[in-house]
Amino acid sequence: MNHVNALRAGNGGRSLMLCCIVISGKTVDIIIRWFSGQLVDNGVCRETFLVALPLILAVCGIHLLLHFLEPYVGDQFEASYTGSLFSRLEDKVLYSKQEQIDRRSIGEFSTCFTSDVYGLLRYSKRMLQILVPDIISFVVCIFLLVHMKPALGAAGLISGLASTFLMSRLSRSMAKGLNDYQEKLKKINGLTSDGLFNLEMVKVNGMEQGLTETYREELEQLHRIKRKLAVRQAVLSAPTMTLSFVTLAVIAFCGGYFVLKDQLSMGQLLSAVTLSDYVVSPIMRFENSLVQYRRAGVNLKNFNRFEEMEREDECIPGIIPAAECGVRNLFFHYPEEKDIYNDLSLDFEKGRINYIVGGNGTGKSTLIKVMGGIYEIVGGKICLPVKSGSRTCVRDAVSVMTQDSLLFADSVRANMLAGTAASEEKMYGMCGKLGLHDEIQGMENGYDTILQEKGAPLSGGQKRRIAFIRSVLHEAEVYVFDEPTVGVDLENSVCMMEYIKELAEKHYVIMITHDIEMIARYPGNVIPLRSDLEIVSNDL
After folding, report:
1. What is the pLDDT of residues 408-425, one digit of tens each?
2. 81: burial class by Cβ within 10 Å (0-12, 13-18, 19+)?
């Protein structure tokens, strides 16, 4: 997306309407100012007044209507524009390749969703509501001044061109400063996000002082960059104000001189002086428009980093529809990292639980992401009981419960039914089996209780059980559980394992765990995954 496309990012029709309304309002105002001079020269008799009165009232009415219509259309444009950019970003984040999403930091995401989007909005509104109408009104007024006296039009035109040339040169030095400011803002947003997401650990480990000092240092650097930008903008404003004053003085003094020489009437002088506002004001506002243009260039650069992310392929590479479930000669590594899997092969069995065990860094959780099509494999095959290797088919056939109990800021009911077509009756039955039904009903709004940040007011065990219910309500062929009973009390852990055992009778069930006692209590196909990437299958 470039500067021109940024103006049409929301709704081309609304952009054009907003610009046309502002231009129409300025045009009507120019007509009123021009007409005022004609009245001074021609005078107003009774007959002229009776003819002109309806016209004057109509023009004034149109001017007032456009004046009140502009903010309404502006608000509509703003809502459409930001909604469009947010939708584009959301689409990129949800449907781009995970490898490319991982290259973007939390600071980049938060900065793009806040600073960059609203920076582009300010730029677009500036161009549509101020710069383009200013250019048109400037040209019209120069034409009228030339029509009255060529010298007046020449003075305004020379001043405008000189101001444009001078400011475009001076504003180039701001580009680097604006880019530095945005980069520093990303870093601060990243620090803030990390601190808020891990606030409990920060407090427990006594890291508040260190985090505060780091944050203050970064803010001070940000303020220094901003102060430098403010100085540069002030320097940029000085010649603008000077040229504007000179332009106004030249038009006024030249107009007065021509009146004294009987080369210009008093009415024309009145029109020239009042119209000079539309010559001077665009010059004064052009400096801010240039700054917005430079800033929008930085915003566009950041926004385009997300726009350029490649969309996920509809068919997941390496997924093979098959009657069995397993991986064959699998190769995988994260971008610019060492191999996680190097010629890995293993088979999962239906009828009993398949346990994957191993130390940290052996690729247990990565296997879930690869089988679910989150990451594309480098080589080999993943055999799944699916009709095709399409992303929709695979994600319908594979239900995953991750280590993190991901809950949304929605009702308890909506969190359990998210992404499933299960009935509420089945949900209630599952809650009853896991001892959740009475606990949820004990809340103020029962199943309609809205969860807050990080799933509050639920306990860790309740969040795990809700995440578990959501995964098993998804009718799939393959169920994958990553440490499902961690944080759950013994009684409910047993209930969860009994249900997993029941699931395994008719489905492929894969479970990552470190709990050796649980494996002994619920025997299955144990696959130790070692750091040397070897697989050894054992039956327990």
Report:
1. 878 888 888 887 777 888
2. buried
